[in-house]
């Protein structure tokens, strides 16, 4: 950041001009999700912000697989490539800031935005998330780490108070955001929810104390859309930018003649109406319970102007916010500067075909083969029956701000027919199509689909019986703004799978879901393939895997048998909360840590995933021990381990080598997880190949957070267990560490 240039601009800006830089306005063209008008007098241009994590939400764009699919690849390098591709499309659409990635840890398996997040584990989230950020930033676009912090459910997300311990925050919920800051992320989005009593847009201890003072973040803190509640509290709490700074009518007016007329005529002013008086009943009747109240929408407008004039907010506080925003301009080269020189010379064309291929690669690499009796891979000559309510359309994503209009799509039916001989691939729905919900649905959306006559269940079963292999494609429907009602698949799909499996023992189930779902039929089918929300290349990637491309994915979340298996279940205090407070009583025992503590056997454990190859582990060795514990640097290696991995098959395969640490007994009164992910490496091995894989274990992986003493590495014996999942250790070694 060139402080001299920013100092000069600050000295010239009037107060009104400063306020123009800390509050969004509607994009005149209606394309940006968020828009800063700039200050024309001083040659400060407009700034465009755009959704989102699965693709650019502006006209057509590549619909990449859902973020959880990227998490399932366990491959930071691939995440970096996706970030670069998203940056290229963001720039091609004329925007400057990408509102991604989502870095919240998956706490609730039925969370409406689980598909937008990477994992239930902070180390996996940190590694893949930081690489994603690095790719976006390297592409000349500002990344936005969201939603800071503890935004772990959609139910009442705009008001719920996450009551969470400092230890759980530090060990589980903050690491992904810290990693993004270390990757030089440009912006952080404050979450809607409260944390320990304070709205995140006003949370000074976390925004100023942790984010800025501890981590050294010098970028922009923006609100989520209509996520600001009080001008003075937000200004003093550390918020820099209020978004969108406009009413719902103003924001969407460019897309509607009626709304444009309302903006021109201003009926609320003419009739002396208070917009919330009619908006809030509409919201209560027709919108999801997680949608924010869009009134008031201009707290960093006149309310902040008055607060500064009355001395409630210091002029220096406003200047600091403007400095952060101008710093973002400078990073992007919009005030001139190194990145700007590179960016202005970079082509704004996009390799759309190459990006489609990348989306296909991510979908393939994120596919998790959960179970297989040898039916897969297919040989190519089998007749297929494809069954499923939505198997003839690609599952592009979930609902909400991450929705993308794809450049093209390939459905499972299309992908399999392209790969096989078309006459040998039949299709039957079996049950009614599952709705793909949208946060932008209006009352009555999908009514025609719900009222039309249902598909023929018996015809689907008959088709399955007549085919050599049946592929049943099932799915859920998740959206921002509401959590799923349960882990069960909707619409009679479980019954369909059971009937088809009884008719044909060679039944392969393809599960397109936002996160874990119940699989009561898992032991009765030949194979289970988890593809998440695979994006626009859905069917092509599926065909790749079913016909022999090794599925590289491993579970980034634990798949329980039922919701009641999860640590958040069993008490409404933990979820969905009571009296708008949700108590994180499980502490650090999120996901697999809680399953281990409670002695619950998951259906499929964290890190699980089968391969068409056959891997063997041996020769685990601790190559290096830093006896002083890595000093003060929590990311400094403490243990350098190596393990030999051999592919015993005669075909290539991809393995994700996972290292878990089992700590010594903690001091009395402190519980620690039985084992925690410490390091991992995704490696491709040819048939018969052996390779020594290095794994570096940082101090942070051994440490626990003590509210009094900070990060602490307990003395004692630490076991390093390397294997294929959190419950499938193949080799282990131990090391003694002194305090």
TrEMBL record:
Record carries keyword Oxidoreductase: no
InterPro entries (alphabetical): Cellulose_deg_GH3, Fn3-like, GH, Glyco_hydro_3_C, Glyco_hydro_3_C_sf, Glyco_hydro_3_N, Glyco_hydro_3_N_sf, Ig-like_fold
SMART domains found in the cross-reference section: Fn3_like (SM01217)
One Gene Ontology molecular-function label: hydrolase activity, hydrolyzing O-glycosyl compounds
GO biological process: carbohydrate metabolic process
Family, as annotated: Belongs to the glycosyl hydrolase 3 family.
Protein name (database record): Glycoside hydrolase family 3 C-terminal domain-containing protein
Gene source species: Halosimplex litoreum
């Amino acid at each position: 950041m060139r402080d001299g240039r920013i100092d000069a601009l600050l000295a010239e800006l009037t107060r009104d001009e400063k306020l123009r830089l800390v509050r969004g306005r509607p994009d005149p063209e209606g394309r940006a999700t968020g828009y800063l008008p700039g200050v024309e007098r001083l040659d400060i241009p407009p700034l465009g912000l755009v959704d989102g994590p699965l693709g650019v939400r502006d006209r057509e764009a590549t619909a990449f697989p859902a973020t959880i699919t990227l998490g399932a690849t366990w491959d930071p390098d691939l995440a970096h490539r996706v970030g670069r591709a998203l940056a290229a499309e963001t720039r091609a659409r004329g925007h400057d800031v990408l509102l991604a990635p989502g870095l919240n840890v998956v706490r609730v398996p039925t969370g409406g935005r689980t598909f937008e997040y990477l994992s239930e584990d902070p180390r996996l989230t940190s590694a893949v998330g930081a690489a994603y950020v690095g790719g976006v930033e390297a592409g000349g676009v500002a990344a936005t780490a969201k939603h800071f912090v503890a935004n772990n459910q959609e139910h009442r997300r705009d008001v719920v108070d996450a009551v969470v311990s400092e230890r759980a925050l530090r060990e589980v919920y903050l690491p992904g955001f810290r990693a993004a800051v270390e990757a030089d992320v440009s912006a952080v989005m404050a979450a809607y929810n409260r944390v320990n009593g304070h709205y995140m847009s006003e949370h000074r201890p976390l925004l100023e104390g942790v984010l800025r003072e501890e981590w050294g973040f010098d970028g922009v803190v923006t609100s989520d859309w209509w996520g600001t509640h009080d001008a003075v509290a937000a200004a003093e709490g550390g918020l820099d930018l209020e978004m969108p700074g406009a009413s719902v009518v103003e924001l969407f007016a460019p897309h509607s003649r009626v709304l444009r007329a309302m903006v021109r005529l201003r009926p609320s002013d003419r009739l002396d109406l208070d917009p919330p008086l009619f908006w809030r009943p509409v919201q209560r009747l027709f919108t999801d319970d997680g949608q924010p109240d869009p009134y008031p929408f201009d707290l960093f407008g006149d309310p902040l102007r008055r607060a500064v004039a009355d001395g409630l907010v210091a002029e220096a506080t406003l200047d600091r916010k403007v400095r952060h925003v101008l710093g973002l301009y400078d990073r992007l080269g919009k005030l001139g500067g190194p990145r700007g020189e590179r960016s202005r010379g970079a082509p704004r064309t996009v390799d759309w075909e190459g990006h489609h291929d990348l989306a296909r690669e991510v979908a393939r690499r994120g596919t998790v083969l959960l179970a297989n009796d040898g039916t897969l891979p297919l040989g190519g000559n089998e007749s297929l029956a494809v069954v499923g309510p939505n198997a003839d359309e690609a599952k592009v994503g979930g609902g909400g701000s991450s929705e993308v209009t794809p450049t093209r799509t390939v459905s499972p039916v299309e992908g399999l027919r392209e790969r096989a001989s078309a006459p040998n691939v039949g299709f039957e729905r079996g049950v009614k199509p599952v709705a793909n919900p949208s946060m932008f649905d209006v009352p009555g959306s999908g009514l025609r689909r719900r009222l039309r006559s249902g598909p023929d269940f018996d015809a689907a079963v008959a088709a399955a019986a007549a085919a050599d292999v049946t592929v049943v494609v099932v799915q859920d429907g998740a959206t921002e703004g509401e959590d799923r009602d349960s882990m069960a698949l909707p619409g009679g799909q479980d019954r369909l799978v059971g009937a088809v499996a009884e008719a044909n023992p060679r039944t392969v189930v393809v599960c397109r879901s936002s996160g874990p779902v119940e699989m009561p039929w898992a032991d009765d089918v030949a194979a289970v393939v988890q593809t998440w929300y695979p994006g626009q290349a859905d069917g092509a990637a599926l065909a790749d895997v079913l016909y022999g491309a090794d599925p590289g994915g491993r579970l980034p979340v634990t798949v329980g048998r039922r919701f009641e298996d999860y640590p958040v279940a069993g008490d409404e205090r933990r979820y969905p909360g009571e009296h708008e407070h949700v108590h994180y009583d499980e502490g650090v025992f999120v996901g697999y840590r809680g399953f281990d503590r409670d002695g619950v056997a998951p259906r499929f454990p964290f890190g699980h995933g089968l391969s068409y190859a056959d891997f063997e582990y041996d020769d685990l060795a601790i190559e290096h021990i830093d006896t002083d514990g890595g000093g003060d640097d929590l990311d400094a290696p403490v243990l350098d381990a190596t393990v030999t991995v051999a592919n015993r098959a005669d075909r290539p395969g991809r393995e994700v080598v996972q290292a878990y640490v089992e700590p010594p007994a903690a001091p009395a009164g402190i519980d620690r997880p039985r084992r925690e992910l410490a390091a991992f490496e995704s490696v491709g091995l040819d048939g018969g190949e052996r390779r020594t894989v290095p794994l570096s274990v940082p101090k942070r992986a051994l440490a626990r957070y003590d509210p009094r003493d900070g990060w602490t590495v307990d003395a004692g014996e630490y076991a390093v267990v390397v294997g294929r999942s959190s419950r499938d250790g193949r080799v282990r070694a131990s090391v003694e560490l002194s305090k």
